[in-house]
Batch of 3 targets.
Target 1
Amino acid sequence: MFKHSIFLRIYAGLVVLVAIVALFAYLLVQIINYQRAQEYRESLTDGISFIISEGIARQQTVQQKIDWISDASDLLELPIYYVDANKVDLSRAEQKRISQQKAAVRYDAQNSIAYIIIGLKNDTNHYLYVKVDKIGERQMKALPIFILDYLVYYPGQEKEYLAKIQKHFSYPIEIAKVQNLPLDSEQIGRLRLDHSIILYRDSATVRGTTISIVSPIPSTPSEVLVLGPVPLFNWMPFQLAAGITLLSLFVLSLGVYGLILPMQRKIREVNYALNRMKSGDLSLRLPIDGTDEMASLASSYNSMSDHIQRLIEAQRELMRAVSHELRTPVARIRFGMEMLAEEDDYEYRIQQVDMIDKDIEALNTLIDEIMTYAKLEQGTPSLDFEKIVLAEVLEQVATETEALKTQKEIIVEAPLPSVIADAERRYLHRVVQNLVGNAVRYCDHKIVISGGITDAGMAYVCVEDDGPGIPEEDRKRIFEAFARLDDSRTRASGGYGLGLSIVSRIAYWFGGRIEVDASPTLKGARFTMSWPAKRFAKSNKKKLGSKESLDN
């Protein structure tokens, strides 16, 4: 059922598309956040790496540098190594960062360990290698100590040099008055005891939660060194969320457009075909691609076009044939009327009146045949299906035919009375009557009528004769309106060429088919009409349907 419905495919496609877009958005967020986290880690280490590099550069000897590094390691409680540059394999991006006096950070996500590589000022032969396996208050409170150690060399110019190194920090650093900070008495007391404090601020703004480190300056008790506020890493900032949402909606809209585009293209084709039909061109047919609703619509359009075109052609042919058929009896009536006007013999006049009456009866019969054929051809019959005993219909037609004194032997091989099929009695009687009448005209001596139900559940009626039969190349043409294989013989027998056409249309509306072949026993023609013995619809009214069962 899934492949037969374009709407189910679209709905399922939307579900799959939403899942794919959600997965795509998740992976994109992870990739972007991985890069953002790396940039965040690097931004936090750039400033302090510069200060550490400056501190080591002030040491005169290698031993002094090693001692300074050892003190820094103890202060940070982190292992710091003074390594040869040729032992460290740097990528091009890491080399570029170190050349810009920035730190290179390598993060091991599995073990949650960061490795910081710091270039040394005036020492290209060594790198400082820091292993960061923990970040706590001890490490954060140690950061101001390195900055104050740097500012010790510039007494009285602390603020000026602080402003110069600000470019190396991603967060603000400044010297501020204690009274200008939003501190409580406990925090001020801790500053007076030369203890650094950490301030947490949770804001509803884009910055979110921030951390500030406040450290006392020994030389000026009224002033403190403030680092921050430093924003904590936000995994889903507003800009990223908005960007990912817009991108996801864009990808989703493209996917929806891709799902709708085939249906839109097919609807455009149908609309174009309908416009062509409206202009009178019925030759265009739609391609049938698949088995979904659009394919069904294309098939229905093609069937409708075929039906309309066939109706128009049948109407034209009917008009030509009717005008031709009407000329002969009308001409005979006119001739008879002229003879009546000129003849005084009473008996001859009575004879002419009888002939005129027969011609009028022939006209009535022709009109009745034409009306029946037109009603069936235009797809308007209302068929009242009921349970029919096939034997009753076959025997009724045989009895009616024998009453006409045709001098033909009619044999009825009727099925058992228990053989019942769903049919419209009036039209089934008309089928058997037309087939038997056709056989009477062309047989030599014998006609066999039979019927029944096959193992496949198809009901059938069959009429065979011992006449000359029908050539194989003409077996389809005989079901066309006013078709005659032998005009002179048909006219002599009184036929109009509509009987088999009516049978063909009744078979179509019964949902069956009519076939003709050679009789295996009588060697003449054998006509067999078959149709479903049981109707599957709840209603017994057969409505106008698609042309699937017969195309004669």
Target 2
Amino acid sequence: MSSELSGDDLTSVASTLPVSPTRDRFQPKKNTVLVSHGRPPWYDEDGKPTGDAYVVAVSGGSGSGKTHVARQIVKSLGSIPTVIILSQDSFYKYHSPEELELAHANKLDFDHPDAIDMPMFAACLADLKACKQSNIPVYSFAEHQRLEEKKYLYGATIIITEGIMALHDPVLRALYDLKVFVQCDSDLMLARRLQRDVKERGRSVDGILDQYLRFVKPSYDNFVRPTAAYADIIVPGSNNTVAIELISAHIRRQLQQRANQFRQKLAIPHLYFNGRSGASTPDSRLEDLDLQVLPQTPQLKGIFTILRSNSTSRQDFVFFADRLSTILVEHAQQYLPYFPKTITTPVGVESHGQILNAKHICGVSILRSGGALERGFRRVINDVPVGSLLVQSDAKTSEPLLLHAMLPVCVKLRHLAKESWVFLLDAQIGTAAAAFMAIRILLDHGVREERIIFVTFLVARGGGVSVLRRAFPRVKIVCGAVDDLMQEGWLEGYRAEGNPEGLGRKIWVMQPGMGQIGDRYYL
């Protein structure tokens, strides 16, 4: 994915309301999510987070160029993982009718520290820094009001916060890894503010000047400019290319120190984790791995014979893959909670049975091979939301990268996530790199480990499943069959570093396996 920051690359997280053109026009556009090449692992082989997201604060006066500096830092970084630019403007407090009347008359002080909901800002930033999801408030400058909806954010490696009071609150300052203050001439700041508020916020020139003299300038002198003492670096508001290059070089060094690469250890665990609890050899017993394997009936063996065959047509492959996924999900349902229920049959006789006792159930497929289990999942558990995670391998390191997360609402909202049961769908667990990342994502959202049920066609006994079980022992893994070996090789068509023959990216293939399941199912 390109790291150039064109207009299409800047995905605004300010508002998605289907509202009037005027209201859309004046929504804040400072909050952005920038995706370059995905997020690499932020956890170790024990499944524990190894470091927080890197947080940079950019402060300065109104119109000093804070947002421009933030975006220039991102552009200077080049090919980087996911970045969030988080504006303090989103955290203006909810206003009463009396305050709204003053705001529309340009008589409400928006430049005082008390105008910002600092505790909410700190709480949201702390969640994002700790690799958890957060729901950011949406503020309308046209209405001078915080809107009811919020914007979901997750997965940032770098968080850049910008705002006039970004360095004012000590709780916020404790969350920053790097503090930047943008210093600019007062006349230039006023000119920029006039141009911005007329064009983007629909204000009159007289109103802007009155507000500037009444609130903005005194606030800058009393509250904003003194916070420059807390900055690690002071950047000029214009002609700041050298300063931005120094900042981006520092951030790149910090990211390199936090890099965590261990997929090869997962692929061949007996070479790296020999003697550690849960780290198995290729001939380990299934009981040690604690897998829920389907009974190997003649029907199941027949299905696998067809799916493994290289001569099976796509039509037959899809049919039997759907059949197998249906059987797997039916088997996996036994791990959901049930409670006794007595009913009366049509002939007037009482029958004692059980009924599902789960408040929220959803599915999450790991794209794209996990999509091969979605149809079977929907056949068995009807009318529940199904989300997806796009996890792919880095062409240079072969490490997993989180490129996209589209999760159900019951997972996005933390108070619902802790009550949810999640069926995690993927076609196979080989090195277990994608499985590691997917489980860690669900845990970051507040899903309980014992409420994750991983459903898959195949598991490699000698692959990363042993390390996965040690890291997440309470996750249930339901599979159709277990293969013995993982073979190391190179994927043709990729040119990557560390491969002098130029054969491509290193991969580990399950044997006997079922080939590229996603390709066989969809192509």
Target 3
Amino acid sequence: MTWCSRQPSALARSKSRPSARLPIALLLAVLLVLAGCSESEDRLNAAVRSFADALSRGDAAAAAALTTDEPAATDTLGALFASLGTDVDVKVGEVEEQDGSASFTLNTTWKFGPDGRNEWSYSTDGAATSDGDDWSIQWNAAAVAPGLDEGPLSYSTLIPQPAARVLDRTGAELLTQHVVTLVDAAPGADVNTIAALVNPIAPGITPQSLAADLEAAAGKPVTVITLRQDDLAPIESQLSTLPNVTLRPQTRLLVTDRTLASPTLSGLSQLWQQRTDAAAGWAVTAQTAAGPRRVGGRDAGPVGDIAATLDIGLQRAAEDALAPLPTPAAVVAIQPSTGNLLAVAQNAPADAQGSIALTGLYPPGSTFKTVTVSAALQSGQVAPDSVVACPGTENIEGRQIPNDDNFDLGAVPLHTAFARSCNTTMGRLAVNLPPDGLTEAAAQLGLGIDYTALGMTTVTGSVPVADTPALRVEEGIGQGKVTASPFGMALVAAALANGSPPAPAIVEGEPAVADRTPEPLPSAVDEQVQAMMRETVTAGTATQLQDIPGLLGKTGTAEYVDTETGDQRAHGWFVGIDGDLALAVFVSDADSSAPAVDAAGRFLRATP
């Protein structure tokens, strides 16, 4: 509303007296006044809109230029945008003019945090003054944001207190928040002294490596190392006195036992961060003369601990079992009755390749015979006691299949051929299956099924439909186009122990969801395969584990061609069932199953 719009015009007054005639000169004067009012109102609205638009762009200079105190406004607005950012939207509300001055309302929304999830909305009142035909915004910091007239504003995240922890299945702390310190070095720092101080902690840090890092940073500081408090304490005083070295404390989620390095920890850390972020609050604070005063925000909500399914004792035993192996190796242990992952371990060479325990795909070799014999039993072509041929080598549908070292058992019961790992027997059984026989039998045991699980990413493997007899022969012995991850083969063992694939989980009470539900495994088939796996340990290819009471197992050697050299190589596998524990051990480039079997033994003998 303006002064002009509130005054009754001469024309309006004349309408109340029908007999009166308005002189032409007076009418022209009224029209000129109205035109002047309209132009003044337009100029005022334009000034306020321009001020709001400049604030919305985060353009401190443009907004300040529209005010009555440009230097003060420039400083205040520049500091405001530097602190709160520029994700701000300012809308003009009401504008009223009277006697050369005006008032207006601004409706403002700031967005903070990831994806702008935190919003601060408020309305403020401002004033404008005219100077001839022009309008200026009366500078008042409170017209831009609450509390800005009392001091600079800052945004901060309010972390839930106490912070959530990640616990193992016994309630022991697995991941907790720790204070760590980043050691930053700027150009000119004494690389020799820095390296001498931190090299005992991180042998890879040398004067040469530090110099190279600083050169690559092109004049910017580099973070030399991140140290826990117990590592920092002995050298903190020396580091803090070095020129061009800065120590920056931060809070991070770390493994309580730093010797543990499961690939599942990254997924659990991400889940912890998601839940912490969702519960986090925030605050916009004015730094007043009397101290900080919150002018906007939301309190942090409660956040509970995350109960992981891992068992720290089993995890440590699995990592220790893999430590002596020089090639990438992994162990996955699942509780068949629940699907809970109890241990997921890798050695250092495997860590360099990524999360091979959960997502690495390899030919499973003879461990896949658990699937082949399951399919053959279901097809009705054999029973556990059926006598089958196990020649040392056989040409099956044009594919020459040898046994290991061409051993020849002659005619033996199926359970013996399985326990001794007869390739020729399994190849002959597979070729008589329908094209999708192995695909469906694998799915019944969880292999080839995709699972979506909270806190982890997994891949089980792939068993393509075998359209040709030759491909069925190769797939029957875990070669050809069949692939499996250590996680996938552990799930196969768990399914045989449980009678069906359990829904895998890394967080208690949060089972994975399968992308499809295959036909159930017929009753008795699981028990028949279990009996054959028991014979594998007592009188087959895994007799070095027969001291472990009741253990069931299946060994596997999976051939592959080295793409760089063209040489024929082999991975080693072992899958087993020990009571309510199912496991898979994978050893890359092992030449045989022996290293995997030995690692399984070290793991199982170390567990209660």
